[in-house]
Structure formats: structure tokens, C-alpha cells
């Protein structure tokens, strides 16, 4: 089969890790008789340098014309002093919004080979999926600066509609149906009105999904519980900002933030797939970045957007086999560079 994949390699280590994922995809294409046609587009800092804006129209059009999008990472110190709407990150938020990708799925999985790297190496095994709302909340609310009584003031607004909460809630409950049938919704309903509405809507859904065990948790407690007893979680559903923070925290339980992939999906098949980590400007160009999160993101893309479940399994198994054989990058206690790690993973593709 032929598929059109838009590439947003981005900044920092972005191009290096996306290139690793492409090598893996090309090998899978050769093994299983597919053709992946790539269209490289710019978003983030590289787009600012080229066109003056973080998300050129041609990038949005190119993504809309593709079956799916693979992204590396955006941002870096070079663009840190630009106004908010012209920063690289605005390009990422813009493409998520433009493609209607309201659900961000972040599986937090501990590979057996890395258990010793986890700060919770003596705890029971866990397997969590964080379902993060991605196109609403404080990331997209009204913000600005005003001259207040005590001088300059800045504000950001958290706003959620019933529709937005309900559709992300459904993703969480449906995801739980294919797993251990437990959903915990994370909010700050003891303080925030947006969280109180969030909780009300989640309760209505919980009444509908009677086969799923449901619970609420306040976000500060959830941050603690993740460290104390991660095995209590199956699916965690939460708002845009809480999901951003909790997924970075949870990543450490797997040994490294370099391990976690993500998919961002909406109502259709097209999705955007990216590692949860950033552009790591400090190690960009050194050839030491861990490509696993991006390779696993490509595997998620095959499963969810291209209906290639078998091929997706093949990639995930190859990653697991390489780790089991002791092939590790520096962030997970090894010595391999990006290229060597990629080659090892490719050698286990069957
Ligand atoms: C992520 C990142 C982004 C986010 C940044 C780069 C805008 O941290 O995908 O987790 O906050 O969503
Ligand atoms: Mg983040």
C-alpha cells in the first residue's frame, strides 16, 4: 500500500530522530511491500528562519493533504525572545489545532530491560496511558498583558466547553475498554471552575460507561500518587496543561523521557505522531539523542492512522528486542549513539 506522510522534523534533535524513524519505516516498507512517500515541511524555529512564521500555510496544507504527520520537536534558545505567537511552540499548537487533534495519547510503558533504570524498580509493574486534552484549556484561552493598579499584569485563561470535555472523556473511556477498564480523571476541582465542569461531565460519562471503574483525583495528589504507586493507574484523562506536566513526570518512571511516544488524534484517521520530549538543543548535532520515542511514535502512526497493526507490532517488538539485548543510548545507561541504536533496532525488524 502507498501512504503519504508529512514530516515536520523541526529543531534541535528533531531532524536526527525523525531520520532514525524514517530508516525504520523504510525497512518495514521493504519487508512488507509498502511505499511511504514523505513530504518534508517546516514548522517551529526552522520555519521562522525560513519564512518568518512558525507555521507557514503551505505546512498546514501539506499536512491536510497527507495520510498522517510525523513530527520531531520544536523550539530552542535561538527563538526564546520572540513574542508568544511567533515562537516555535506556537507552530506546534497551531498544527494540532488546524488538524483538529484534540486527543493526545501518551502511553507510559516500562520495558522489562529498563526496569533497573526506573526509580521505582522495586514496585509492582505499571502500564499507563495518559489521555491529554490537546486543543483547549489554558493553552488556547484568552491571554494578554494589561496595565493594572500595580503596574503590568499578565493573564492566561482556562476555558473548557461541555463538548470539549465530553469528547476527550469518550476517548479515555473507549481506550480503557481495550485495557484494564479503569479511568482516573485528574483535575483541580477544589479550586478551578473549569475543573468542576470537567468533573461533572466525566461523572455523566462514567454513568454511561458502567463497565469502567471510574475515579477522580486532584492533580497535586495525582502527581504524588504517580511516584508512590503508579500501578494503581490504567487510563488517566486530564486537561491540556495537567497532561503536559504529568506526562513528563510519568516518563521518568520508564527510565527516560527519551522513551515515550505519543499520538494526537481527532475524529478522522489522520493523526500527528511525536515523541513527548523536546528538541534538546544541548545535545543537538552530537548524535547522542535517543531515537526510541520517535520510532515508537512511528509505530503508533502505523497502527492508528495507516491500519498497519502487524507492522506496528514488528517495530515495537524490535525496540523491545534491542533493549533486551542490552543495546542502550546514554540516557538509559548505555553508550550507543542515535545511529547505532537505530541500526540495532532495524536489525531486529522481521
Ligand atoms: C509537549 C510539549 C509541548 C506542549 C510544547 C513544546 C509546546 O511540551 O508536547 O508535551 O506543551 O504541548
Ligand atoms: Mg511537554
Please write out the topology.
Layout: E1 2-10, H1 14-32, E2 35-41, H2 45-51, H3 57-64, E3 68-73, H4 88-98, E4 103-109, E5 127-133, E6 143-148, E7 151-156, H5 162-177, E8 182-187, H6 193-208, E9 213-218, H7 219-228, E10 235-238, H8 240-251, E11 261-265, E12 271-275, H9 292-304, H10 309-324, H11 338-347
Parallel strand pairs: 1-2, 1-3, 3-12, 5-10, 8-9, 8-10
Antiparallel strand pairs: 4-5, 4-11, 6-7, 11-12
Helix pairs in contact: 1-9, 1-11, 5-6, 7-8, 9-10, 10-11
Magnesium ion (MG) is lined by residues 244, 248.
Describe the structure.
The protein is of the alpha/beta class. The radius of gyration is 20 Å and the shape is globular. It contains 11 helices and 12 strands. A hairpin with a 2-residue loop joins strand 6 and strand 7. The model has no long low-confidence stretch (mean pLDDT 97). It has helices at residues 14-32, 45-51, 57-64, 88-98, 162-177, 193-208, 219-228, 240-251, 292-304, 309-324, 338-347, and strands spanning 2-10, 35-41, 68-73, 103-109, 127-133, 143-148, 151-156, 182-187, 213-218, 235-238, 261-265, 271-275. The protein folds into 2 domains: 1-103 and 257-350, 3-Layer(aba) Sandwich (Isopropylmalate Dehydrogenase); 119-254, Isopropylmalate Dehydrogenase, CATH 3.40.718.10. A 10-stranded mixed β-sheet has the order 2-1-3-12-11-4-5-10-8-9, with helices on both faces. The two termini are 18 Å apart. Residues 244, 248 line the site of magnesium ion (MG).
